[in-house]
Amino acid sequence: MSTRRGLLAAIPALAAAALALPTAAEAQSVTLSFGPPPPPPYARPVPPPRRGYVWAPGHYRWNGRRHVWVEGQWIRERRGRHYREPQWVERDGRWGYYPGRWDR
């Protein structure tokens, strides 16, 4: 039982490490797969535009045991790049999380 607890305790740390290793510009695709689907997103109004920033909408992330809502935020714009917002995609009955990233 302690081995199982150790493995379960390591999941959030491993997930955080997987997200932290590649920079947003270098990462082609970092995907984390989970069984349960995320809940529907909250309907939040988008704030007025802010010069030099891109709005990253709120989304659910997985904390190792459940989905947790992350509020939207302003991210400093990167010239020559397009921000792709985080998304959940279902494949073969499992849900994959694609974190937000900057594409060329």
From TrEMBL:
Keywords of the record: Signal
Signal peptide stretch: 1-27
Tree of life domain: Bacteria
Keyword Signal: yes
UniProt keyword annotation of Coiled coil present: no
Name this protein carries in UniProt: BcpO-related WXXGXW repeat protein
Species annotation: Neoroseomonas oryzicola
